[in-house]
């Protein structure tokens, strides 16, 4: 078990050459494929064997997106109830979430509402969530129609993907979409306008109007 | 609180050994990642502060003077008259603007950029939902940290800045000769101490959570009833530690007071910003304060230090290879001379001090010397390796050129890539402030565990004598 975590590169984690660092949390019922999803994305590997995650784990991946180098610390959580207290402690540090269910497992889909409530409770108000129906390669065993997933995601205000960690469908897209919407939120957070950005002088100076643009042209 | 402590004890016995090891391993990795990230942020903020300082209007001049607030170039009355930056309300010449339509001055732009890059934006947003609650549970966190030595060490990661930095970075530029005023400096030193201790608390808050969560998990196994209770307690505790607000705004008020003691003129601009923030939303004021403190604290330098650590559990000897340094600053700046050597030692305790040979007249010394620390792996928990570079001057005068710290208990020794040389940046010293000079440069090191059984007994004895005599040099 320990060796599985040891395979990830030290270089990647100690690299300081990036612009932003985002923390992402993957949640969902046990055995929906959270760990597989992460391994597919970070290592491009897949093992069909099911190994239950102990508590919490993470991987680091640096991607290049929108002209920025973004380092992702992706937390993989244990779906099992008994680790719930450990995993919820990490909600607060996450900027974005991947909420996953298994399209061949009705119960995991029914639990989405509960997971979303957990996010609302423990995370920040602008938490970005992507709903992912995993295992879409197993069309024969599907019990949750794609449309139901879509409707639920609209109801909850999340974006929606059906994906397969096994066949590498929509895995990269999911993470990139999430990164994009976190980037959007990030810009909004500061553009929402705090004039005192440098903490410099306020007061009478504020009333002074910015000089009209044509003044600049003169120089 | 008593129950929490009990939980902690039970935690170690109740959690299955493998599970606990597994979780701790992840936490250590995360802690290591954050150490690196903190270092990055510190450097980032230091750069920003440098930029600010360069452009800051000094109080020796009239504020309303027609000069650009950033580059200090004079502004004309009719042409090149500058325009007011929406961010800072200073008058800015056309060269010091970033963007076209909705432009900002260089400093405002950089400030915004740092907020993005450091993740500060997220902390501020989050503070809107989880503002400060109470300090009451801070005690529990502290207790957990000290009891659980794995975590206790984490709390000492950010270095305490030497007092001189204060006048240098924060106020020198704006308050001109204020730093010569003794009572002022003194009071600011005190202030700085409390500042940094608060910041440490904030930055370690996440670690506190870990201590909590482990105990909570364990508690759940014990009884469901108490789970609910301790869970909510930890939640409150977490938020209180995350945003340890109430006392922070006071600090700025203090700073205002001391500013006014120090000087009757000119302190207005800086302090107004402080009180402005503390008057605002508490949550955001905390994070803004933290960015400011980060600026004061930012002592790390440019440049990198490449280091590799490896670990083999079937031997018990830590092997460190000091490769080389590059771009060191001159120990003797006047004569442009530098005789650098590298000193290694284990923190805390400063055990096993070892030095390389002194290389004469070079800022890019090559050592390639191998050092061995005989030490059991479990003893690495909470230990850090300190590699400092010194200039060996005349009359045994030593001059500090920079250091790098390596947390050993989170280090992934098994990793093949980490066994090779890596460059790491040199930083200012964490504790001593006196004769620290500005420096840049790097040290090349390699640390690995050797499996040579034969040499172990000998090494162990020489290691012991090292501890006794502390200053002896061991080169293998």
Automatic annotation (TrEMBL), chain A:
Chain residue ranges for the region called Disordered: 193-219
Locations listed in the record: Cell membrane
Catalytic function, reaction form: GTP + H2O = GDP + phosphate + H(+)
Cellular component, GO annotation: plasma membrane
Superkingdom of origin organism: Eukaryota
Family annotation (SUPFAM superfamilies): P-loop containing nucleoside triphosphate hydrolases
Signal peptide extent: none
Predominant location category: membrane
Alphabetic keyword roster: Cell membrane, GTP-binding, Lipoprotein, Membrane, Methylation, Nucleotide-binding, Prenylation, Protein transport, Transport
InterPro entries the UniProt entry points to: P-loop_NTPase, Rab3, Small_GTP-bd, Small_GTPase, Small_GTPase_Rab
Family matches, as Gene3D superfamilies: P-loop containing nucleotide triphosphate hydrolases (3.40.50.300)
GO molecular function annotation: G protein activity; GTP binding
Topology of the protein relative to the lipid bilayer: Lipid-anchor
An annotated GO BP: intracellular protein transport
Function: The small GTPases Rab are key regulators of intracellular membrane trafficking, from the formation of transport vesicles to their fusion with membranes. Rabs cycle between an inactive GDP-bound form and an active GTP-bound form that is able to recruit to membranes different sets of downstream effectors directly responsible for vesicle formation, movement, tethering and fusion.
Family to which this protein belongs: Belongs to the small GTPase superfamily. Rab family.
Name the record gives this protein: Ras-related protein Rab-3
Organism from which the protein derives: Champsocephalus esox (pike icefish)
UniProtKB/TrEMBL annotation, chain B:
Top-level taxonomic group: Eukaryota
Subcellular location: Membrane
Coiled coil: none
Gene3D superfamilies in UniProt: C2 domain, Zinc/RING finger domain, C3HC4 (zinc finger)
An annotated GO cellular component: membrane
Major location (coarse): membrane
Chain residue ranges for the region called Disordered: 212-284
UniProt xrefs under InterPro entries: C2_dom, C2_domain_sf, FYVE_2, Rab_BD, Znf_FYVE_PHD, Znf_RING/FYVE/PHD
Pfam families on file: C2 (PF00168), FYVE_2 (PF02318)
Compositional bias ranges of the Polar residues kind: 224-233
Membrane disposition: Peripheral membrane protein
Residue intervals of the RabBD domain: 9-125
Name assigned to this protein: Synaptotagmin-like protein 3
Species annotation: Pagothenia borchgrevinki
UniProt lineage: Eukaryota, Metazoa, Chordata, Craniata, Vertebrata
